[in-house]
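Q: How do we represent a protein-ligand complex in a form that can be generated token by token?
A: Start from the inputs.
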Amino acid sequence: MHEVTLMSGILDTLRENARQNGITRISRIKLIVGKFSMALPSSLRFAFAALAQEGLFQEAWLDIEERELHCLCQDCQREFGPQSSYCFVCPDCNGQHIKILAGREMLIDFYEGD
Ligand SMILES: [Zn+2]
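Then emit the structure tokens for the protein with zinc ion bound:
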């Protein structure tokens, strides 16, 4: 389950950032997870519960926003979204030079604490 590895990295980032800012308790963590990031929110929550045991995270609420897939056809410059299911073929010109603009990210939007 690679969500454990991902969450472990996120917690390390939060620990480091909280230490630098003198934060001892985190109340809320907001993550942005692209639907194409291959990370399942339910697995991330499970990993969070398993890994975030210490006081810093004791009262932390984990908020996960899923971001839709958003793609660009580099042949006709059309942008298209999740209604076209996957970004493999352009719905307009059938071009296959597709760039994924959003939906593959996995990042910390913000966190709150004191
Ligand atoms: Zn196209």
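The domain at 2-69+102-113 is CATH 3.30.2320.50 (hypothetical protein PF0899 fold). Residues 73, 75-76, 78, 90, 92-93, 95 surround zinc ion (CB under 6 Å).
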